[in-house]
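Recap slide: Serine aminopeptidase S33 domain-containing protein, sequence and predicted structure.
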Amino acid sequence: MLYMQENITIELNSKTKAYGVLLKLKNPADRLIILVHGFLSNQEHHLFYNAAKYFYQRGYNTFRYNLYGPQNDARKANSTNFATFASDLSKIIAWFERHYSQIILVSHSLGAFIILLTKQRAISSLVLWEPSLHPKEMLKNVKKDAPYYIFNLGYQVRIHREAATSMLDVPDLDNILDKINKPIAIISAEKTGKKIGKYFYTLASEPKKFSVIKGAGHNFDEEGTELQLFKLTLKWLEDRKQSE
């Protein structure tokens, strides 16, 4: 299937831009998937790099972008918060919405809170891959080495206190999901996120779906689990299309 890859720069304000990659079918497509990464990840993580190609091969344009980056005018991980990330995503959606009849948001890990906090007006469907603990819960057991918080992600990551404590500003999950009236699918990894995913599902409104991928860990690195994740996501999106 023929496609075009385009590096996209979207102005967020007079000093800040978002950087991403659009995979665009040469034959017009009216459906766009925006892929939102999680904590300390980026658009080149295998989930997003591979998902972008998987879904364009099945008729969707895809856009993956960095929440923060090395460019001088990009957001910086240590100087922003979830409200800012959500506001940025709303502006990205507004940039694309005139071109697409359907915009789908897909997130991984803490990216779930970003897509849930963004403006929902132009969104047709949400997919949460392995949503994480609420940020407040993540902060309860972190080590502190002033002025840093140390997160254990299988390896240690030091985040400046101001950026870490911005997680405390995220509303409680029940208050967030109470305001969401879009179709939502939650796909969790058996090894790490089944209980958390079920909690998201319990609080979400219909139409909704909850799936667990057997043998999968948080990043779906195990053989075959990434492909299963993509297939479940595609089925949800195609089922939603048929029900419209």
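The chain has one domain: 3-134+170-243.
The longest strand covers residues 3-11.
(End of recap.)
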